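Example with several molecule types.
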Amino acid sequence: MNLAIRDIRRHPAPFAISSLGIGLLLTLVLSYAGIYNGFVYEALALINQTGADLWVVQRDTRGPFAEQSRLPEDVRYRIAIVPGVAVASPIVFYTIQRVWKGRPLRIAVVGYDLHTGVGGPRQIVAGRAISQAHYEMVADQKLKMPLGTKLRLGLHDYTVVGLTHGIVGSGGDPVAFFSLADAQEIQFVKDNWAIRNQRQRSLDAYTRALPTQPTLAAVLAGNFADNPDLHTVNAIVVRLDPGIRPESVAAQIDRWEHFTTHTAEQQKQLMLAGSVALARRQTALFRFVLSITAAVIIAQIIYTMTLQKLRSIALLKLIGAPNRTIVGLVLQESLALGLISYGIALAIGSQTYDLWPRRVVVLTADKLNLLAVVLGICVVASIMGVRRALRVEAGTALTG
Amino acid sequence: MSRATSVAVQVENLTKVYGSGHTAVTALSSANLVVHAGELVAVLGPSGSGKTTLLSAIAGIIDPSSGRIAVGGSQVYDDGWRVRDLRRFRREHLGFIFQSQNLIPFLTARENVLIALQIRDTTGTRAIRAAQDLLDYLGVGERQHHLPEQLSGGEQQRVAIARALANAPEVILADEPTAALDTERGRSVMTLFRQVAREKNSAVICVTHDERMIEGFDRVYRVRDGLVFDDRTPGGVDAKAGANGERTF
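Resulting structure tokens for the full complex:
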């Protein structure tokens, strides 16, 4: 006969409310693990979905995600002829923020070469991939743009022709894929007003300089064209022939082409060692504090529950119940409270994580870790109650 | 000696002093008491006279200051020594019934009896059957699935008696078992005690201050100011007692 279950059965409402409260607290503990995993997922999402073996970036930079990197687009041809390279394809990556339908809209823009397809969306969940060189885009579902939506960016409207699911930039912003040329244009080409203003400023400077500084005026005259170099990319992504070691090709590119090359693994480590590492420490601290809070609350509840049945415990002692029966009663109630709260946390989490603004990824390992922590907390939290229960004199049952 | 005539409880020169020095209070002074198996004995006295102290000492709940106590041949206390495993001693030799809140509130009537059986390692269908038999024996078999709060005071006492009988104890210690009951139900409980003492051959020591109930007992001890007196017959003083009525067995 399980005394703990029978005690809980007699007063189910307070026990259920306590379980719900602790369950919500454990939801937060679990969520912080999920949020950290979400940071990792988001930081690595584009790297993973690109599927590159090497990332060639501006010399001595850690681009293109952890740091800005700029390369001439035609570098791709030099990289492509390095032995072992199967495909070298340019990629553009940057984040923009616009207002769309009255709300701020942040988009992680990815421009890729439509011919190689490297860096483009791997899986389209609705619609199709980009098939025209211009004015089409594939948006992630998180942008909440249905197929056929036209989005004005810079000088042109771009039509959503396909949707992806769960592709975000390292900052958690949903990704929109464009052709390389379109992405470059969105980034560098100014709208007509900006061009006219720039031309006017250049003309003013030229007019002021011409009478007294003809050399400077000649330089300024070159600005009239205001023709930005569109053929700049952030990285060249490389896929290697089968069996080729990425490190050997990377060393060759670094030595002869004067660029910096990161293997896919190094690229991931760059991301994880940066802002994600800070987030990890932050969330670990929160989880620790929340776990301690949960332990204190469980201890308090178990202690109170124990106090409420001291007379019953005394009675059990009086009729000869061994200590293990008393300890079992307190400990099992504590474990029941913890396990039910844990179940509530899992249920709430699984039903709500999709609604959270940023991705929450709860791994099986996190669930098992939390289960172990909860069981540990319950055992520790029940110590106070057990000590109190064992101090009760059997005579209390007689004398009240 | 058969159990029917054997000594179930023997208390010799039992003294209990609470506190020390100026604050010392003598709750019991050289108390003596003998109860045989199958006997129904009352310990009668006003509040604060030392009745519950006597009961607690017999149960091994408190350490007497001096004297000897033996229950069923086991020394509970012997001038400074007491049985090491008191809880095992209680579950093997004693049954308890007291005034109110006798039962564990979160267990049903049957479970309250079952827990006593379980503590003695009687489990499974055998334990359930034994619990049902005891509740039927005491006339509350139909109420076995009710919680204590759903039972009347008399029914609760019957369940408590059933639990006290669960381990077939040599001695049942009852502390004011009828105090919370009206006269009719009180008499009914006393009748049950008599029945239990006779049929189960258990010694029943019943502490009470309720003079109405003494006629049903085989013998009556009176406690006054820490002194224990024996009435051979209810209402009278034992002829063998000393000048002040004190008697040593």
